[in-house]
Amino acid sequence: MTSDRTSLLPSTLLIGDQRIGTASGGVLEHIHPASGKVQASLPLAGAAEIDQAVAAAQAALPIWRSWDPSERRRALIRLADLFRKHAEEISTIHSLETGMPFTQADWPTKWGIDWLEDAAGWADKLYGDTVPISSQGLFNYTSIEPFGVVATILTWNGSVGAFGMAAGPALAAGCTVVVKPSELSPFGPIRAAELALEAGFPPGVVNVVAGGPEAGEALVSHPGISKIAFTGGGPTAKRIAVSAAQNLTPSIFELGGKSASITFGDADLSAAVAHATFVSVHAGQQCTLGSRMFVHTSVFEEFNDRLASALEAMKVGLPFDEGSQMGPLINQAAMDRVHGLVDRARAYGEVRAGGTRLGGQLSDGYFFPPTLVSGVTNDSELARTEVFGPVLATIPFEDEDEAIAMANDSEFGLSGYIFSSDISRVHRVVPKLDTGNVGVNGAFVTAGPTLPFGGRKQSGYGKQGGLAGVMEFINTKTVTVKLGDPS
Fold it and tell me: Is 227 known to be catalytic?
């Protein structure tokens, strides 16, 4: 890999097969989270480029949907193969975008490959139904059609993985896409779109336009958009919903979480502690993280001791340094938010590990250590707020009903986790958790693209993954045929 890694970062937007080097939204100066310094620049789309991208996607739609489904399947597989061929390059882009340790940065790449290949498998297996002949002499059937042009607005944490997760199913369904990546990690999706052209996708099927709020508003309010798939925060989703309502544009929202992790007294504590240490992955910047940890009083102190030791042992470091286990937060705003939440939590909880921004050779970047605050209450700020950082909070409980009540006492409903050796208890608790996903005894939710994934309450609606995720981008048409009189 070249020593000048930043040369791998794309410098243009991609609309159709045109690389856009100058755009009406200005210029993004991208700051590397590990250094705090500008490492690359990129043009930002404005309303004009959004119009251009939607027009390109509309022009490509009849071409793409007319392809035999097996041809779409093969195109998606070719794209996945190109991701695999360029895996080291794509993973390097992830590290440059977000500061993620390079040794971990292959998971978004693999995630993107998995989602594209799974979507490819559905492309030629989507069928309508035949409805029995009615007593009125009518023959009825349904046909399936792609929704149209889909706006996919991506989260920043693992951009090529997010691309595969959002765009793959839409493309398999025969839709074309206008992808708006986050300004924090725009480079991976642009590279993915370049590879889509190399894989033989018609120009305009995949368009990537990085931009700020102006571009986002132009995209979600555009009358040429048939559906919106957004991953991000609740406040932004609510603004999108208001804009989309002007055209009655349906949406999928995969939003934040404050997931509860319940560790019962009979749990395998080693497994529960190991699961909690995944707070280090992407510096805790994950929507499914079980950061609100309910622990039975009989094992509460032991759990906190073991978890604090495990967190303190982690190596926080620069993304390309050997042995780095955790990288930085994404920007200064994230640092201010996380540090503020922990500082205020000192008034009602005990900081058992971490808690203060790191200095030394890491002082220029946005490095905050894995942090444990123990003994907080479920009504505290730290227990109510999605931190989106490497901060865990432990809360003691006495019995099963109390744990369930506290777990459900949240505006979020994305994920939940249970640790217990009593399988009867597990199956008793699972249906009582008001979440879209539950992991048991160390299993993470979103275990793969074959599983439907989505939230409840302020964690959004709609599904990604499995057949349910592909069908989000399908319109069903009912056809009724009057049969002739048999006489």
Answer: no
